[in-house]
Write a sequence for this structure.
């Protein structure tokens, strides 16, 4: 039982005007099942943005679960997006690998709206492997933000979801093995080691990452799914890997994605940064992954936005919901009209092939103007599907 | 081995990601009487150009490119002390480069620096997670024609505006061209934040910088 949740439920339950013929939940679920929706669902990843939108600084919510949850619900109540994204930052993900005294060096908050800065936890592949073999992530878990902030925040939002009779789903965010593999040692180091280190050693590291992630899924089965979670976003790594690296090492993500798909009903894959069609193809073939939150085309691809949206939609056809638009850059620095234009292009290019969800490829920047976030929501709401 | 053969082997070492082989090759080249500048421009840099071509047509990807950069740097480290005495090296422009505030990811910079150096742009690396004042001081100290902001994440790219503004307030904006680089940058957004251009591709970045400086492609 949470006071902040009960306050919001008493304020909102039965008092919100309906939007279209479907509830937010129904709209998101139908899109993920590749079924017809009344409107194209819209669920921008508001992680950091919703904190400042609600009037808090990032420092202020860092250790305060109630304020974090309050920010998420307050933002949803105002904007009525089709999902609530739980707040997730990098410290939730990897703080439990190191003891408390090292954390201030690795996780640094500065400006009120700034992203949490972090430094890698291991300098060599041997060090990273040793960290996993010692199971440091268990040793330092108890007082880490995974336990003190992420979990209680997730539980509060799920409590809200259930007490609101599942009008709106909460999206649970968890990272994949390759995301961990890259983050812990710094992405460029891991990428180089894929080429320079013995393949067996790289495999050993990735297998350790996979084992930890699969064990974490048991936690999610009990505490997330057990408390009503149905929608899950898997934050993938491997953003700039080529086909050879995907072929050699990306099986750990496939295994993890498939396992997550057996636990959560609606799993989608977050693949931000520059995307290759080959990587999207690989993700699209993971059983249980029902949607792909993809991003910009890879450097060398000379395509227009509508061409890129169409190319991705064709890859996902018959398998996944396509989730995109506008770019996070446009959301922050474009005009509301430009945001509307890109959202329309995305919808127009996608719907002939698969379902669409308006969801930029990465989290919305804290500095993004409110009118731009509203513009993407309004554009989706103006697009009734016949 | 003749001159052409040694230079070809140096280019091959970069392209074939031969981290261990490049240093002995540089020694061999110098012992054979090759000038440091030609060893750089016609050997190591040619290798980086081939890597760029392979990257642009999808035969090579970021993991290999990063290793190729290490090979180039290993060779450059041996040659660099000798370049000052070699009057033949032609420097097109000087650039200061660093990761803007909040960003410690060096992945883009590690690729960009050797590519730029290989193209005749002298790069001074200011480091990572730099506050605005570090760029202002860097311009004052090195008098560059170009300033490069490196950023890996969308969120840190958004700091471009503040850093450009600090450079403008210091009265230094008109004397430099500012270009952003990294996987999350967007040229239009960079211009809106006061920079001159942006590129997510180091080789394309060279083309853009030459355009900004009015140099032939």
């Amino acid at each position: 039982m949470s006071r902040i949740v009960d306050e919001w439920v008493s304020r909102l339950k039965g008092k919100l005007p309906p939007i279209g013929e479907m509830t937010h939940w129904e709209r998101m679920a139908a899109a993920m099942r590749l079924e017809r929706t009344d409107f194209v669902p819209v669920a921008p990843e508001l992680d950091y943005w919703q904190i400042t939108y609600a009037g808090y600084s990032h420092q202020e919510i860092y250790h305060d679960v109630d304020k974090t949850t309050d920010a998420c619900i307050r933002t949803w109540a105002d904007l009525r997006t089709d999902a609530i994204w739980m707040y997730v930052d990098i410290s939730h993900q990897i703080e439990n690998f190191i003891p408390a005294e090292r954390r201030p060096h690795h996780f640094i908050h500065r400006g009120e709206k700034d992203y949490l800065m972090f430094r890698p936890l291991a300098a060599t592949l041997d060090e990273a492997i040793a960290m996993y073999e010692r199971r440091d992530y268990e040793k330092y878990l108890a007082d880490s933000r995974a336990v003190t902030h992420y979990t209680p925040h997730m539980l509060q939002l799920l409590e809200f979801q259930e007490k609101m009779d599942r009008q709106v789903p909460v999206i649970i965010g968890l990272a994949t093995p390759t995301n961990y593999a890259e983050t812990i040692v710094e992405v460029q180091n891991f990428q180089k080691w894929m080429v320079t280190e013995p393949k067996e050693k790289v495999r050993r590291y990735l297998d350790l990452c996979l084992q930890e992630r699969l064990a974490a899924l048991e936690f999610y089965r009990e505490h997330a799914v057990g408390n009503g979670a149905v929608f899950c976003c898997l934050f993938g790594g491997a953003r700039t890997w080529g086909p050879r690296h995907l072929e050699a090492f990306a099986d750990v993500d496939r295994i993890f994605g498939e396992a997550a798909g057996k636990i959560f009903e609606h799993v989608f894959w977050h693949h931000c940064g520059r995307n290759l069609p080959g990587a999207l193809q690989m993700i699209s073939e993971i059983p249980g992954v029902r949607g792909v939150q993809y991003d910009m085309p890879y450097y060398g691809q000379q395509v227009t936005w509508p061409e890129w949206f169409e190319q991705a939609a064709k890859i996902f056809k018959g398998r996944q919901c396509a989730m995109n638009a506008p770019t996070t850059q446009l959301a922050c620095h474009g005009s509301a009209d430009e945001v509307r234009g890109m959202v329309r292009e995305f919808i127009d290019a996608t719907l002939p092939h698969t379902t669409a969800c308006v969801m930029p490829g990465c989290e919305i920047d804290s500095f993004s103007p409110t009118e731009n976030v509203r513009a993407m929501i309004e554009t989706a709401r103006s697009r009734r599907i016949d | 081995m003749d001159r052409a053969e040694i230079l070809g082997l140096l280019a091959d070492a970069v392209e074939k990601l031969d981290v261990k082989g490049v240093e002995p090759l540089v020694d061999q080249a110098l012992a054979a009487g090759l000038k440091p500048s030609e060893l750089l421009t016609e050997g190591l840099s040619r290798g980086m150009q081939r890597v760029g071509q392979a990257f642009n047509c999808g035969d090579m990807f970021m993991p290999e490119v990063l290793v190729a950069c290490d090979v180039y740097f290993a060779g450059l480290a041996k040659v660099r002390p000798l370049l000052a005495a070699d009057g033949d090296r032609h420097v097109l422009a000087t650039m200061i480069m660093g990761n803007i505030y909040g960003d410690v990811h060096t992945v883009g910079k590690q690729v960009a620096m050797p590519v730029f150096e290989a193209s005749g742009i002298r790069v001074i690396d200011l480091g990572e997670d730099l506050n605005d004042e570090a760029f202002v001081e860097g311009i004052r100290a090195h008098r560059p024609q170009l300033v490069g902001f490196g950023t890996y994440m969308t969120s840190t790219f958004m700091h471009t505006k503040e850093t450009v503004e600090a450079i403008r307030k210091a009265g230094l904006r008109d004397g430099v061209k500012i270009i952003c680089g990294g996987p999350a940058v967007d040229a239009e957004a960079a211009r809106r934040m006061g920079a001159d251009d942006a590129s997510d591709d180091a080789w394309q970045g060279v083309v853009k910088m030459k355009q900004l400086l009015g140099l032939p492609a």
About this structure: Strands of chain B lie at 93-100, 121-130, 146-150, 177-181, 197-199. Chain B has a mean pLDDT of 89.
